[in-house]
Give the backbone structure.
Amino acid sequence: MRAVFNALQYLVIATALTAVYFYSNFLSLYLKMNYGGLAPLWVATGIGVALLWLYGLRWWPVILVGEILSTHVVGRSWIAGGTASVAQVAEALLAAWLLRRQVVDPLFARGRDVLWFALSGCLLPAVAGGTLGVAGMWFNGATAEPALSGAWINWVLGDVLGILLFTPLIAHWRQWPFATGRMLSEWLLLVLALGAGALGIARLPNGMESGLFFLLLPLAVVAAARCGAAGASSTAAILALFVVAFNLGGVQDHFLAAVRIACVGATAFTGYLVSASIAERQLLGAALDAEQDRALVTLQAIGEGVISTHGDGKVYFMNAVAEQLTGWRAPDANGKPIEVVFPLSLASGDHEQEHTVRHCLMHGAHSEILTRRMLRDRSGRLRPVEGAITLVRARDGNTLGGVVVFRDVSEAEQLRERLVREATHDSLTGLRNRASFDKHLRELTGGTNRRMQHALLYLDLDQFKLINDTRGHEMGDRLLIELTKRLRAVIRKPDLIARLGGDEFGVLVVDAKEPVVMLLAEELRRVVLDYRFKEHELIFNVGVSIGVTFFAPGERAPEVLSRADIACYIAKGQGHNTIHVYKTDDVSMMQHHTDLERVASLQTAMQEGRFKLFGQRIMRLNGAGDSGERHFYEVLLRLYEDGKVVSPSSFLPTAGRYGLAASIDNWVLDQSFRFLSDKAQHGIRLSINLDTRTLDNPDFHRQVLEYKARYEVPAASVCFEVLENVALEHLTSAVETMHRLSEVGFRFALDDFGSGVASFGYLQQLPVHYVKIDGRFVQNFGEDPANPLIIRTLKELARMRNIECIAECVENEPTMLELAKLGVDYGQGFFLHKPEPLPA
């Protein structure tokens, strides 16, 4: 149904168009036949080209049928009509194809559209159509050979003028061409003027109108300039009709009629060029305006200030950011010198000898970096700015002006300062941090004046860890903040104080004599000692140990810091709240160096595998135990040096003082669990001594369970020996770890039981399975009558807690028998078993 409707619609429109083509072609043929070619203007050709170019090639039957019918009506044969129709269709098809190929705008928006239309739409198709039509007329005998050239010229000229005048008319008037009423009014006035002029010329005597007719032609050009392409095409068509009318009513001068029509064609072509030039200029102007608008919006939208100047340095543009930064409104700044609107000074505050932008305009290259300057805005406020200056140059190299792009770097500088401060200062106390302290120390040691003497004071707070652990880190932080304010008040420039660690501080005293340094150290000690930290109703006080060392430029910074650290360590060992000065001949210093060397040798021995585990059996003294009871051994550590066995009493205290005990304990644990994992050692129980600080480590519980799982050792096979200071020193982490391991099945023995008065009170707090009676009571068992009483008391106290007793240092048989009579469960000593390597 849709197809039938489309077919009917096409047929109706084609019929109407055929009628239009028929009458226009009939009129041209009639004039040609009856007036001897007085008017070489073929309107039908223009209609045919417009039809195929603008509305599609499917309308070619309109040209074919209209041409055949019109030629037949005027008396020509069907063959002649068919030949002419084929030539006209071919001409229109060629014109439409060429115009579309060259993408010619029907509204003539550019000059190239007019030129390509004249060439591709008018001249070439007319030549081709005229040649084909005249050849057909000669072939059919409609034109004699002598008249062929005249017929060809008349055909080509008529078709060129028909296309040139009427194809644009249809293209420009197929929709309403006037955007405003003003354009319509101007066009109507021009048409009226054209008509009035034509009527006036027509009333003149014969012969006079020929010279005055050309006065009408400028009106077509004016119409093109004022009303665009539609005005040019409409006035040209009206002029052409006037010419035809003149020719019909005047003297039959064929040459003059042709000249008039050709002049109208030239006028139309000129009008098209004028309208196209104006349209193209308007298009370029609109594009330029749009580009300027985009540039203006872009300049207003960017986050940096922009100021544009002429070559003489006077401002003619500022964006909103520049207005905000300078304090000048753009209208007020317009025409002002750049020095007035954009006053700059150096970072030091001194005014520039020559303004940076002015210097760049006078002597600069194409662009220059605007390094940090201070901009004083209109209110007098200074702000740091950075940016760039770009010069605008003409093609001949002359400077037309400059563009200054700048930004406020106040926030950037504040951020930079904050980052620098964070990198060089402690976040909690605000003092210099360790990195900054080390840098200043290197600067002092790297100096060149060897006559100068500096000092380094190393401060370590006493009792701070106790406050931090018992009252929480928040209280500890508050204490440090308040205390460091008092310490910083004592330090005078150029001296420097820094926080080196948790509760450790360093002070660098520049070019100071020893008495001055010692007075400062005493003042710092007194400040700490007099400080009282209050929390609710509680008052805490801390002490400080201070190590002092003197140094001169040329020494190594790490060695200087190490000396101060050693001096502080010795001060702490002397009873806290003391000051110690590093001296090379100091006995304490020499001992400390010896201890450090000892620690290094212990680390080497551990790496080389010179530590060995020994075992000493713990034997039951009474017969109350199970006959299938496991063998019970205490693990003893030995060190081999130069082929000799070194007793642990010669190295373990040093290892404990310098933090190596934990590493040794880990090694002992690993080797002991590895030993118990051997199936051949099934039924053996090991008692392992632990340093209190190892047990107080929160990760110790997890570490023991990892060893248990890795080596698949039953928990009941391991007993840990601890000292009673676990409870005395309030080591809550250690006590908690003991309970957690005891719940898994591990056992614990309290070593040196009875040596302190606190032993009895802490039995109920610790998950103890054994107590080891201090060997001093056992060794002198027979010499002091109080010893048996003490041992019996300890035994009874342990029994009340369901705890078994182990007597240490059993050296002979009488002692062993007496201990058995007293009910002591186990004995350990050289008489019972001499220590031997554990694998044995």
About this structure: The chain has 31 helices and 24 strands.
